[in-house]
């Protein structure tokens, strides 16, 4: 009877502070458990994606170095002839990106580079290969877009695809003086930079400094131009593909590491919270037992 | 002297791709399987007019003009 008078405040404080805190802690415990489970799932997924990307990377890099040989050989003609792009002619910018995300910032890099070029030549036409850059560029420069291609980047690019793209561009019947292909340059497994490759029109080729060094009939220039464009597109697609896979590998690697860190932190928090709940229950029991002893 | 394919309206790329397709189909069984993969085209394209996307067409079905 004494305890009921002497310790009402303490009891009240005890009940008000422990009972909501206890339910709080159980709810928090369940929340933490839920988060821990979902983060573990995410870590498994990102790890798998990283392994898949690593295996694809070897093939993509081999294909890229083969296509480099094509592109560089094709460009030897223009290097020897010292062809230069025409200043202020009708320009076409071909944007080489892809459809899939989760690969770091490579699509945004390309979009930024293209936007910078559009500042210099605001009435250039755009042909976009890939849904990602299409979505980004259609927000800012929809009026410049003439054609867009989808289903890019699913697998290694084939020369047949590059040829068909070049064909479609020529079927547009717009005579472009300069064609610039913007793609990601594969500098190393961790560094990619947007770069451009150029394809020239017959006029520009005829105006090259060293043109007289070559014996060529005018009607062959059309064929050379079409073939050179297909080569350049193929090179850009291959390098862009290799860059994308490498970027995805790095991004998934970072994501897995971050997920691993979060798992450790949450595991520790979970243990601490669980121990706090147990301690709280013990305190309650002991208080109750001590209180009933007194009576 | 204009080449026959040029007079028929083919571009150089189209001429090359048809020739490549013929060569691929004429290979023996083993190399043919490897080569057919190089002729795969999964692209789809759409023309844009005035900021609007037109309908989407598959590249493989494009006529040989």
UniProtKB/TrEMBL annotation, chain A:
The keyword Membrane belongs to this UniProt entry's keyword annotation: yes
UniProt GO MF annotations: proton-transporting ATP synthase activity, rotational mechanism
InterPro entries, per database record: ATP_synth_F1_ATPase_gsu, ATP_synth_F1_gsu, ATP_synth_F1_gsu_CS
Pfam families: ATP-synt (PF00231)
Broad class of where this protein is predominantly found: mitochondrion
UniProt-listed PANTHER family: ATP SYNTHASE GAMMA CHAIN, ATP SYNTHASE SUBUNIT GAMMA, MITOCHONDRIAL
Record text on subunit structure and interactions: F-type ATPases have 2 components, CF(1) - the catalytic core - and CF(0) - the membrane proton channel. CF(1) and CF(0) have multiple subunits.
Protein name in UniProt: ATP synthase subunit gamma
Key words of the record: ATP synthesis, CF(1), Hydrogen ion transport, Ion transport, Membrane, Mitochondrion, Mitochondrion inner membrane, Transport
From TrEMBL, chain B:
GO MF, any single term: proton-transporting ATP synthase activity, rotational mechanism
GO biological process, one term: proton motive force-driven mitochondrial ATP synthesis
Gene3D superfamilies: ATP synthase, F1 complex, epsilon subunit superfamily, mitochondrial
Pfam families: ATP-synt_Eps
Transmembrane segments: none
Cellular component per GO, a single term: proton-transporting ATP synthase complex
Recorded family membership: Belongs to the eukaryotic ATPase epsilon family.
Protein name listed in UniProt: Mitochondrial ATP synthase epsilon chain-domain-containing protein
Provenance organism: Tuber borchii
